[in-house]
Amino acid sequence: PELAKMVSSLISSVHATFTPSEDPHPASSMDIDKMTLKSLKLFLLDCAPLQLLADRKTGNRLSLNKRTLSQLKYCHSLHAMISSADSNLPSDASIEERNNMLAKLIKINPKVGLPHPQWTALHDAILIRASAKHGWPDKSTSTMAIANDKEIKWGAPFEATEKAKTEEKEDEDDSQDEAKFQAEFDQLHNIASRAAAFLKPLSA
Prior knowledge:
The protein is mainly alpha-helical. Among the domains are: 64-159, no CATH class; 160-204. The protein has helices spanning 4-17, 37-47, 50-56, 66-86, 95-105, 121-134, 140-148, 162-203. Helix 4 (66-86) crosses helix 5, helix 5 crosses helix 6 and helix 6 crosses helix 7 (140-148). The model has no long low-confidence stretch (mean pLDDT 77).
């Protein structure tokens, strides 16, 4: 309540300095044939995302070439697919459930080559989520970010299952036990040989 008058005064000052646009709907009246650099700039200021406006004001601007625009189109499709899949699941669904649902939406031409003989639609779903998170994987930075993300679980055959990890650990333990036994046996053999060499003259 103490600041109400100050806030009201500030709002009034802003409204007083604000000059309304002559055209309240610039996009609807845009004529491409008569477009000028000035009209395009005004249209951009009215309708462009804030991220794009901020980028246009920096020295190192994003190059909006054909490749970049294609990547943006692909990324938009990724997010659309993910949203469509997740909308069919409860908000507390696990990532495994979400990936399985997303895999059902993926339609791949059977003639398309697979990156691995055991690659499945589930791996495609995981890759889609990874690309939506870290960017299109044709860039080395995005690829490295995906590869180093420990939260991304690719599953078999690219990651060992818990059972396989347990069996691998047991094999390592068995190998360590065998190596320890062999070392103890070699040590005992050396001791026995030394003892035999010492006892042989005495028994002659």
